[in-house]
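hey so u asked for the seq, here:
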Amino acid sequence: MNGPDVQHFHDADTGTLSYVVSDPASGAAAVIDPLLGFSMSSGRIDDRQARDIIAWLRDHQLRLHWILETHAHADHLSAAQYIKSELGGSTGIGEGICAVQQRFAHIFNYKPPFRADGHQFDRLFADGEAFALGELTVRVIATPGHTSDSITYLVGDAAFPGDSIFMPDYGTARCDFPGGDAGQLYDSIQALLALPPDTRLFMCHDYRPNERELRFEATVREQADTNIHVRRGTRREDFVRMREQRDATLDLPRLLLPAIQVNIRAGNLPPAEDNQVAYLKIPLDYL
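ran it, C-alpha cells below
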C-alpha cells in the first residue's frame, strides 16, 4: 500500500497536531486541522503556526489542493481561511457540520445572513466518498461520536481520525458535546480498528500522560492491542459506561466558545461590525 509523506506541526498550548499530507509523486498536498492561536485574555489572534505550515509547503515546493477539517474543533480555532488566503486550496469537512451549525446557531442566537447549511466550506464529504490528492486517493470514513460531524481521512496507509481516538496510553475522546454519543464513538472506533493492522493513525492531539515525550502516531495493531479504553475485546456497554462516567467529570474546553464560532464558519471570523471590529459572543449562564 502506497503512503503519503506526512509532516506534523505541534501546538504545545492546546496539545494539537496539524498535518501536511503530500503525494511524493506529484507534490499535491493537503493540510489537515490547521490551528490558529488565540488569547482569551487579549482577544488577539496568533498566526505563527499557520505561517510555519505555509513556509513548509513553499520550501518543499508542494501545491496545496485541500484544507481539511476532521470536525469543528472545540479546543482551537481553525487557520483554514488564513492558509487559503495565502496559497489557495479548497476547504472540506464532513456533511454532519450542518447539524453542528444548527445546534450552535441556536446557542449563539445567530440570525441571517448566517445559514446552517455548510455553504461556508467548499466541500462537504459523505461517508465512503473518495477524492484525489495527486496520484493518491483520499477516502472518507464517517466516525461520529465525539461530534456528529467527525470524519476520518484515509490516504494510502495513513489515517487521520481527528479527536475520535488518541494515543493508546490516553484512550479516546469525550462524547458530551452537543451531538456527541459514546455508543456511536465505540462503533466508529471499531471501523478504524478494522483497517489493515499496519495502517498508521495520526492523532489530532497528544496530552502526554505522565509528561512523556510527544507522540502522535500509532498503528491500528497498537491501538487494538493496548488502547486503555478500547483495546480488542472491550465490550460496547462497558465502553459507554466508562466514557459517560468520565465525561461527567470533565470541564468544558477553555476555548470552546470562541473556537466553535470560528470553526463552524470554516475558519472565517464573525463579520465585522460598523466599527470594523469583529466580536465573539459569550452566552452567560447557558452551558
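The chain has a mean pLDDT of 97. The longest strand covers residues 5-11.
lmk if thats what u needed
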